Amino acid sequence: MLLFIIKRAGALVATLFVTSFIVFVALQYAPGSPIAALVGGPGVTAETIARVRAQYHLDDPVIIQYFHWISGVLRGDFGNSFVFKESILGLIGPRLEVTGVLVLYATLLIMVFGIALGLISGLGSRLWDRVISASAAVGLAVPSFVAAIVLIAVFAVGLGWFPVFGSGEDLGDRLWHLTLPAIALALSATAYVVRVTRSSIREEASKEHVLTAQARGVASGRVVRRHILRNAAIPIVTVGGLTATGLIAGTVIVESAFGLSGVGALLVQSIFQRDYPVVQAIALILVVAFVLMNLLVDLFYLVLDPRITIGSGQ
């Protein structure tokens, strides 16, 4: 276990360096220039522009610019925003909380409803299987921005049950504000987990040891818990973990639709305004979240099945 964690930590560091360099270089060669955001409007003297370029190392080779940036990141300093003229950590911090709560809320919805509906579809009657399978197919086909528009039109504007904009204040109010965004974010992912759960459950239910337990008169609840769900959990956890990680990218659309001040909305705004340090910081955070989620999924395999040797491919 310890050796596995050390190896994954090394892979995490290597992934972060490679990804951060690719993002940094890509932004350097993107169309446009951050100079306008740094020095203001027209009428700026050439001396001012030269001083700003020297301050931000814009005239240095790309590799030198990357070295200055990554060395600051390793010290916990992501620099300052070109547009907002403030610390990037101070800028991202409150927005990261909103996005984090939204992603956790959506992940909870995905795992609870995805697994529950998949179980009903895999073990229930043919009617329930058809209804849930058809609903899952529809859910997979609905993009998050379409789901957001429908939810706003029906439950916020039409029925007035939920607020349209904002993320709320305390925890209860925040969850109320984030309910519709979480549903929009989780809809297609929940449908995917339903289908994976259904397939895994049906495959396990048809195996010989399950049929033997049923023939011996073992209680159906015990058979489902110990012989079916436990063995089917690994593909379900894998898909659920990767899906939850992918939700971070989906927040870009959902946060914009619901007027949330999260990391996704800030990323879109920063790209349009060529606020490169903010884009680089958010991209790095997304990579860290993705790699850490993969690590947690791998470690959870041991809880589900201690026979698995992590990293051996078995």
UniProtKB/TrEMBL annotation:
It is a multi-pass membrane protein. InterPro entries: BPD_transp_1_N, MetI-like, MetI-like_sf. It is found in: Cell membrane. Keywords: Cell membrane, Membrane, Transmembrane, Transmembrane helix, Transport. Residues 96-297 form the ABC transmembrane type-1 domain. It comes from the Bacteria. Signal peptide: none annotated. The keyword Repeat does not apply. The chain crosses the membrane at residues 12-30, 102-124, 136-162, 174-194, 232-258, 278-304. The keyword Membrane applies. Gene3D superfamilies: MetI-like. Belongs to the binding-protein-dependent transport system permease family. This is ABC transporter permease. The lineage of its organism: Bacteria, Bacillati, Actinomycetota, Actinomycetes, Micrococcales.
